[in-house]
Design goal:
The structure holds 2 protein chains of 2 kinds. Helix content of chain A is 43%, strand content 10%. Chain A is mainly α. In chain A, the strands form 4 sheets. A 3-stranded parallel beta sheet of chain A has the order 2-5-8. Chain A starts with a strand and ends with a helix. In chain B, a hairpin with a 5-residue loop joins strand 6 and strand 7. In chain B, helix 2 crosses helix 3. The relative contact order of chain B is 0.16. The chains are: A mainly alpha, B alpha/beta.
């Protein structure tokens, strides 16, 4: 998520666990076991809510991934298992800590090796990261023009890891709210209603993938994604064009397909239509283009 | 026994099952205690980690506070298998119980089929211990009948089907349970329930989020 300070990035992230399906018993056991080992279960039997972990940006690589000198403890990535790991101010995190997220993001587990031995912790989490668009914090906002120098912006952007960004499927811009939105009495859709839709989409996926031993699109290996996406012909054409114009990598291609498949599942559609691919691609557009689009700098 | 030489009759030995947690996985450990001739001391063998080494000094005050006699002899504690590193203060309790069994202060057959885990204070209280859920899972996989754990962690252990759980507040309670003079409070598994109501809700969100 990219947006000005105060636009509501953290607020949105905190609400993500409320629309995710309830923990299954196996998930609750695994997440509770990790909390138990870390001494964070606090006398509860099992975790009932999906974990939401928001480590401070000064967190060390060990704190994030797990480890320690005498006893190997699970890190934030493991404590966020079956829940959400939220990195606010992504550019402020230590570079090596952020880069180290790649293994758990791909494998859903983290192997910690120290002189005292090597242990493996589960780390299957949903990563949410937030950052300001520019060092000054302000968006292409007419009232608060950005005063950053080009080189400052460049340095700021360079702190974002390309390989990590390539693993981010949904890139959102969170704009400042307008007067009408702030003063209006519109109430948004409740979490329970959204969660019901998510649960329905997950159920479709669970049935579809039951024989592969995976539960949802995110866990499906690349070759199977390509086989099970069931693209309509126009959707396939659009995706084909995107590979060339957006320079999608193999991983980017598979990831876009998964998101499109999820969009189709949420819409209750068996096949992936052109609008689902278009939606997936729109989430994938490169971070960094909005500055030009906003006509600043 | 009576026709054996006096020196053999004095051999005092106890064996108890504990669990060490490495990473997230629990590994059953056989804790043996032998009380023999020599200056009063406690020696620990079998790759004990730093926290397990600490148990040497914690256990004697805990045993005495629980109202038992500490043998003024040489106590050797062995943790098997010897090639596996042992971590965590959760081995305090099985070591203490093994010494109580070796000195015949609790009956040896009462500990059979059970795993023990928990950190002891100098006063003999059982402190909340990390990794008890992993202990319970390992005990169930090893086909044990039940686990004795700190009362504060009884609820986690109770999540595992087919495993009896005794949650105790102190070493005195554990010994009382083994001697049949103390009955543990029942602990039943709690259901994975929907959270009653989340403090935050998506309906608080205003305005649309747009893609980059």
């Amino acid at each position: 998520m990219v947006g000005s300070p105060g636009a509501g990035k953290t607020m949105l992230a905190r609400r993500l666990p409320t629309i995710l399906p309830a923990l299954s018993r196996e998930e609750a056991l695994e997440a509770s076991q990790l909390h138990s080992v870390a001494g964070l279960l606090n006398g509860e039997g099992l975790l009932r809510r999906r974990p939401f972990r928001a480590p401070h940006h000064t967190v060390s690589t060990t704190g994030l991934l797990g480890g320690g000198s005498a006893v190997l403890r699970p890190g934030e990535v493991s404590l966020a298992t079956h829940g959400v790991l939220f990195l606010d101010e992504l550019t402020e995190f230590r570079r090596d800590a952020v880069e180290a997220l790649r293994q758990p993001l791909e494998d859903g587990r983290v192997v910690v090796t120290r002189s005292s031995g090597s242990v493996e912790f589960p780390a299957r989490f949903m990563l949410v990261a937030a950052t300001n668009p520019w060092p000054c914090g302000f968006d292409g906002d007419l009232l608060r023009p950005c005063r950053c120098h080009e080189h400052q912006v460049l340095r700021y952007r360079q702190r974002l890891s390309g390989p990590l960004l390539d693993r981010v499927d949904l890139r959102l811009r969170v704009p400042r709210l307008t007067k009408e939105e702030l003063l209006g009495s519109d109430v948004g859709e409740a979490s329970t209603a959204v969660r019901a839709r998510v649960q329905e989409a997950r159920e479709r996926q669970r049935v579809r993938y039951a024989r592969f031993g995976v539960r949802c699109n995110a866990q499906l290996p690349g070759p199977l994604v390509r086989r099970h996406a069931r693209l309509e012909s126009r959707a396939e054409q659009l995706l084909g064009r995107a590979v060339e114009t957006m320079a999608l990598t193999g991983r980017g291609f598979d990831r876009t397909l998964r998101v499109a498949r999820s969009a189709a599942d949420l819409a209750g559609s068996d096949a992936v239509a052109v609008e689902h691919v278009a939606e997936a691609l729109s989430y994938r557009s490169a971070f960094g283009q909005e500055r030009e689009a906003a006509g600043v700098g | 026994m009576s026709d054996l030489p006096a020196i053999v009759r004095r051999l005092m030995y106890g064996r108890v099952v504990g669990v060490t947690v490495l990473g997230v996985g629990g590994h059953p450990i056989t804790v043996e205690a032998f009380v023999g001739r020599g200056l009063p001391t406690i020696v620990m063998t079998g790759l004990p980690g730093a926290a397990v080494q600490d148990a040497r000094d914690r256990i004697r005050p805990a045993v005495e506070h629980a109202g038992f006699e500490w043998p003024l002899r040489r106590v050797v504690v062995n943790l098997a298998p010897g090639n596996l590193r042992k971590e965590g203060a959760g081995l305090d309790l099985p070591v203490a119980v093994a010494v109580l069994v070796a000195t015949a202060q609790v009956p040896g057959q009462a500990v059979e089929g059970w795993a023990f885990a928990g950190e002891l204070s100098l006063k003999g209280e059982l402190l909340p211990t990390s990794g008890i859920l992993s202990v319970a899972i390992a005990a169930a996989q090893a086909g044990l009948e039940g686990v004795v754990v700190p009362g504060a962690n009884a609820l986690e252990a109770a999540q595992i089907d087919g495993l009896r759980v005794v949650g105790a507040a102190s070493l005195a309670d554990v010994a009382g349970h083994l001697r049949g003079t103390w009955t543990p409070p029942p602990s039943s598994p709690s259901e994975v329930r929907e959270p009653p109501s989340a403090a935050v809700d998506l309906s608080d969100v205003r305005g649309p989020a747009t893609t980059c």
